[in-house]
Amino acid sequence: MLPELRKIITFDEDIHREGERPAIPPLRMIGVAAVVANPWAGRGYVEDLSPEIQRMAPPLGKLLTERLIALAGSGDAIEAYGKACIAGTNCELEHASALIHTLQYGNFYREAVGAKSYLGFTNTRGPANTPINVPLMDKHDTGRRSHYLTVQFSIYDAPAADELVVALGAATGGRPHHRIGDRYSDLAALSRDVENPAGV
Which of 65-74, 179-188, 191-200 has the highest mean pLDDT? Predict the structure, then answer.
């Protein structure tokens, strides 16, 4: 395993009621995160980040994907997915982004759940206990608004100033009682199409 890895954190919740109605079936929201020492810390400006990306991103992507799927029960059980990262306060935002914005990280997850859509993301900088917000969307259809969700959790002691946090999130369904339609119904109402949503 990576020498930079300090710990793995998991988060999961089962939502049984939304508003005044039960959620049937309950919606499961899951997050997993890895806290790692920043491999570029103390080196000044590093022009080429690729050696560390290639060394660290694949095992992190594999590790977090396997943990997430174990919590969900299977890749098929996951309907919505996303990713996120946080750079510690002494780190460049680019350092955290480098570990998640590569196919060497995301493709483990994408392939394991049989997804077609891209992974939504957030990247930010902050101290320990900064909220990790993992935006989710349908793994096959980015216009399916029922699956626009956010997994949110925090780590009480991470990231430290020279640490990075990388995370994946998942949901086993869409928002309970969703009723705002989807992108395609809006486009139809506006007499627009997917190829030209702005109508220009």
Answer: 65-74
| pTM listed for this prediction | 0.93
Mean pLDDT of the 45-73 span = 97
- Domains in the chain (CATH in brackets) are 5-189 (3.30.1330.110)
Q: What is the pLDDT of residue 147?
A: 95
Contact between 82 and 136 under an 8 Å Cβ cutoff? The reply is: yes
Q: How far, in Å, CA of 169 to CA of 65, rounded?
A: 9
pLDDT band per the 50, 70, 90 thresholds, residue 163:
very high
**Cα 63 from Cα 109, distance rounded (Å):** 10
Q: Which residues pair with 21 in a beta bridge?
A: 18
Q: Could you give the CA distance from residue 121 to residue 82 in angstroms, rounded to a whole number? A: 6
Give the sign of the dihedral formed by CA 90, CA 95, CA 96, CA 99.
negative
The predicted structure's pLDDT at residue 192? 83
CA-nearest of 199, 188, 189, 171 to 30 is: 171
Q: How many Å apart are CA 60 and CA 54, to the nearest integer? A: 11
Q: Are 121 and 136 in contact (CB under 8 A)?
A: no
Q: Where are the alpha helices (DSSP H) in 34-192?
A: 50-72, 93-100, 103-112, 183-189
